[in-house]
Every structure is written in C-alpha cells, then in structure tokens.
Input
Amino acid sequence: MIRHAPHSRASLAERDAKDPLGAFRDEFILPQGVIYLDGNSLGAMPKAAMARSQELVTQEWGQDLITSWNRHGWFDLPTRLGDKLARLIGAQEGEVLVTDSTGINLYKLLSMALDLRPGRKVILMEGSNFPTDNYMAQGLARQLGRGYEVRFAERDDMAAQITPEVAVVALTQVHYKTGVMFDMEALTQMAHKAGALICWDLCHSAGALPVDLGAANADFAVGCSYKFLNGGPGAPAFLYVAKCHQGKAMQPLSGWWSHAAPFAFERDYRPADDIHQILSGTQPILSLAVMECGLDMMLRADMNAIRQKSMALGDIFIGLMEALCQQYGFTLASSKNANERGSQVSFTHAQGYAIMQALIDLGVIGDFRAPDILRFGLTPLYTRYVDMWDAVQAIKTVMDQNLWQDPRYARRAQVT
Amino acid sequence: MIRHAPHSRASLAERDAKDPLGAFRDEFILPQGVIYLDGNSLGAMPKAAMARSQELVTQEWGQDLITSWNRHGWFDLPTRLGDKLARLIGAQEGEVLVTDSTGINLYKLLSMALDLRPGRKVILMEGSNFPTDNYMAQGLARQLGRGYEVRFAERDDMAAQITPEVAVVALTQVHYKTGVMFDMEALTQMAHKAGALICWDLCHSAGALPVDLGAANADFAVGCSYKFLNGGPGAPAFLYVAKCHQGKAMQPLSGWWSHAAPFAFERDYRPADDIHQILSGTQPILSLAVMECGLDMMLRADMNAIRQKSMALGDIFIGLMEALCQQYGFTLASSKNANERGSQVSFTHAQGYAIMQALIDLGVIGDFRAPDILRFGLTPLYTRYVDMWDAVQAIKTVMDQNLWQDPRYARRAQVT
Output
C-alpha cells in the first residue's frame, strides 16, 4: 500500500524559497548531483576554507615561517577558537579549548573528574555509546588500576545507576546511531544530587541544536568539530571545563602548552591555573586554523532557526518514508517526536548495508552503522526541504528496482 | 682581533654549484631576502604542499566528502606514512605510525614500557631535555602514583644512573639547545644491560642525520615531523614500537582506531595486536596528508649526503664565527666536533635574545632559547654554503653597529 504523500516536491521547494537559512547553502561547496545527508559524520566544506587553507600554506607557512606562531596567532588558536565555540554551547570565555581529539580530551577530563571525587571509583557510561569514548574510559580505568572501573548502563536504566560509587557520568547527548537525546539538565542534576560529576559528549550536538552547558550546570564536555561544525576532516576537537573546576585537579597529558610558563623551559612541571592547563602539546595548525571557517559561519546563523528547520526536515523525511516506503521493511530507529531527536533520522533494515551502498550510487549519501542502521544526517545550513523528497524517492527506487541486490554491495562497511 | 676568514664567499658559492643536494632547494618555497636557519623548529614549505593542500580541500573534502576515508585512503594515513618514515629511521614496515603529537605518543609508549617492566618504578630522563617530554613523563608518573617517578640526570652522569630501579630510559638523541648527540647504540646497550627499556626522541634527528633504530636495537621512539621532515606547522608526530614489543602491553589512550575491529562497534575494548594498537582516534587529515610532501622529498635524498653537508655547514659556520665575530662574546654551545653535533649550531650570549631579534630584522632567521642560547638550524636540502657566509656577516653587522641595543628588542621570547 502506498499512502498519499504528505508533501509534494513543489510545496517543499516553496518552503526552501522562504527558508531564512537558505542563503547559507551558497557558502558551501557541494558536489553536483549529490544529496549529502552525512554531515553528521563529515560536514561539507565551507567555500571560505579554500582561501583560508591556501593563505595558511602559501603565506603563513611558506613566507612567514616560524614567525607565524606569533604574527598569525597560531599559538593562541586553541583558546581563541575555543572562546568562539563557547558561544554555541553556552560556555563562558576561558572555558573551552579547540585541541587534540575527542577521545584524548575525554581522557584528560575523566582523569580530572576522578581526582575531584576521591574515593569514588566508577565511571558510568552508556553501553551502546559510540565506542571510542567507552574504550578511552576503559583505558583510563585500566591505567589507574586500584579498583577503578567503567560501568555501562542503558538509557532507560541510567538514572538508577547513578549510585554513590559513581565519580563521573560520561554521556553522549545525542546517540550516534538513533539520534535519541538525553535530557542534559535532568541528568546533570541527577549526577550532582548523587555527588557525581558529569561530562557531556557533544559530538552530535554542537552546531546541530542549542546547547547550554552553563544553564545545565555541566562540569565537563568534549566534542568534535568535523560534523555539524563543518571544521574539516578530523579537525581538532573541543573540550569544556567549567570555571569552578579549573585549577583544582591535574590532567595527565601535561605537555608544555599546559605549563604555567611554557617558554621558561623549566625542568619540572608546574600547571597553568586556567583552561591552558588542559592543553598538551603543539597542535596541527593547518587542520586547526581551517576549522575556524565553519565555526565563523555557524556563529552567523540563528541556532533556534537551525533547530526548527532540523526538526521540520526530520518530520518531513519520516512522513515521506512512511508514505512511500512503508512496505519495504524499514523500521524507524529515531524518535518520531522531534523534541527527542538530534539532527538525524535513522532506520533499521536487515539489508541496511547494501541499501546504503546502492543509495550512495544514486547520489544520496547517508551512512551505515553496524549491524543494521541507515543514518541520514540533517544539516540545516545546506540541506534543503526538497532534498527530503528526492532522497525518499531514491530510497524507493533502490527498493522498487531491487538495486541493493547487486553483488557489488554485499560487503562490510569501512567508512567512519 | 679579526682573524683571516677561513673561506671566501666565492669559494662557498663554488661549493654550492657542485653540491649534489643543490637541486632540492628549488623544491621549496623560501621567502625572498631571507636566510632561514630555523628549519630545526619549523621546516620550510615544499612546493608540493601547495598543490596537495588544494587537492585535499577542493577535491577530497569538497567533492568526495565522506567517501574519501576509503577512496583517498585517509583512514590508512598513519600506517602508510609510518611505513615511509620507517625507511628514514631504520625501522621495518609495521613499526611506525604518523599520528597525534610527540608528547602524547611519548605518554603512550612510556606507559607500555612501564607495563613491560613490572616492579621497576623509575623513568630516567635528561633534566635539561626539551621540557615537554619531561612534563609528559611527570604527568604519567603522577597519574600512576604507587611510587612511580621521573628521575632526572644530566648527560655526563646518565650511564651511572641506569640502575636496577629504572624501567625505561627516555632520551632525546640530539639536544634541542646545544645540538649535542647521545650515542644511540651505546646508551641502548647500557639500558638493556641493566634490564631497562629505552625510548628515543628523534625530534631533532629524523631527516637531519642517519638513524638506525633497528641496528641500535631500540625499543621505542617518538619524534615530530615539522622540523627536518618539513611536514608543516604542528603536523602529526610519529612513534616507533619494535616488533618484539607489539601486542605485549596495552597503551592507555585506547580509542577506536586501536581496536582489533574498529568498525564492529563492540561495546568493550579489545586491542589490535599490531602497530594499530598505538593509535587513538580520528586524525587531523589536512595536516596529516600534507605532511607526506616533505617526507616524499626526503626519501629521494641521500641521507649520507645530507649528513656530510650538514657537518660541513656547521664547521664552516663555526669557523667563520671564530674568525669574524670572536670579539663579541659569543661562546660555542655546540660541539666543535661535527660527529658529536646534530644539524644545528648554537652559541650562548648574554644579549642573545636582543641579538636574535636584530638578526631576524636583517633577514637571518634563527631562534632564541632561554636563557641565553642562539640556535641556527642547518637544513641541507635548502641551506646553501653561501648562507653561512651571509649569516655570519649579518651577525657581525648586528654587533658592529650595536643594532641589538634598539629598545624594540628588549623583550621576552614567545616563539616555539
């Protein structure tokens, strides 16, 4: 049975024409003939990144060489970009750094959290979280020994598991597979009530929806910049340490950038007493500096408009899938309630891997997450309403014509 | 007293004309009117890096987006570049990674070394080493507690300090200030004889002189790629783990790239049993991929020719300084014996900071290291013999004309 579609392509095109965020699409490079629904994995390229990378290489590295560390502010990039990013996640100046990778930043912050809660030995996490966070926490617990452990709970049981042994709760706000969201304020309150600290992973939140770490009274946060912040492939990640925790605990990856006087070349380590203490060593400047292009664009956009459009895109996508693809065995893995959903829509399907490969060959790029999840990222700065229509039509074509049965598509995923 | 100069500019120009490495200079961008003697801090830009960075941004990120992780081999960059770099440092395929930063790599390897020597609690290091290594080791010891400690010794006393409590000796082969070199083979033997492991920091060695980790039977090594390897500002660092130690000890920064099956998204950590285990998370692709340009060029050069020219450049520089600048109070801080010197020449001078600033304004770029060191890096792929003449003439001008007394130069260093 094919139900009547709840939208027409024309009505969606009309909506695009009136979209207050519509002009941002022109600030991105997007390949011809592609509907890119994977900005939740690697965000598209801001046009500004081309000029910026050329300037960085040709002028700053090529001509100004070592003097660029001061002249072009390379040394201050982690704090300067951190202060910009702070505005997107409800943090204050001096609470955010752009540096290193999400996992390494998590390691630093969890270590600090354990120091701040002596006697408590448990890091509480979601078992089905994107594994790298869990693996890093397990690495830390193993490193510390002495009874430290990572305890896994699932979403429905999380609140009950915040017991007096828990030193820190480390949760990803938006689930990487399903897009389902934790209530940041509620969980933070629960953690604090139990005497624990909390660390939020904002990988699928920053730039995707309004985040207010300050209002939630969050202790720590980490996240990446290459998804919704369009920072470029593997661009350095960010971290947040609430002012009240700065200078109170050491982090173990204490390289020279975290020293109270990095250029004094003292023999012994002496920590900075502010956010600089969470730095480690020299940063990959090309990747770090280019990351600013996506960030600057995001700061010009209205985050509430982004959220409204993101929810609308998801509702339309789900509605069209129900109307046009109901008979093909897709099961919605995201919440139907937009308020409980990040900026993605996911479906499960037993043939998910092959279907996604066939879809990519039709020019609709989403991604697959084992064992059976098809993910479609919604990035309001460059995703159009008509893209929802065209993407669902392509899915319908893949299923109607059994394109997914092509033997080429019968292999395992290898894409991040 | 001004002695007769041991060279003339003309004789040095003749030597440049016959230099078998001379053609490499054309493969670099070098600013007009500058003699760049700071390649031991930030290497000059290979021309190839311009095209590569443009291709990376415009095509790989801009057009091919998420598919580039496989299509353009982003995911394999750490191992693929590591295998190339291995050829420069006497390592085998599968023993080297290009990833993260020097300090973070050191943290991983020292942690493994301590695991491999249970019961021994001491990390032995050189007190006057570039501080970030020492600070990272102190961070690790603090993190572990239980009596772990970093013990500092100075160079002359190092061998005597390799006692039975020492788990791992961590030394930088070429000293960052003076350029003086440790005997890698001898120290490695001493460490092993005492039952300890050794980790070599090759920041000032890789690409500067022949290194043979295999012949020295070294256990571990780290190093950066933005100095003599011309990898770009803050380009990811490298690490080496001898095959015999792989799969025997865990490293704590165990992100998903180090998992035995990273794309299976298993809940619990399960280490890869090869060099992949030393990876952590997603890498900064722009910085990492551009790093290959300098590496490829270095692989085409004859490392013995590089070493011969480097030693000759140093001898000429020292000879000219003695002849032309003896009366100005410079003291040679490097060894006069080229065999004991890395690819730099350093002098101490009480007014070192101001002198270096004045010199930079004359177009001769070296750097200053507190409290009184002037460093001049010699990079045979783009440093000419005549540059030694012109640099010493500029130093003489700064001193003859008291240019260093300009009040502009009376401030503290801030350059890495």
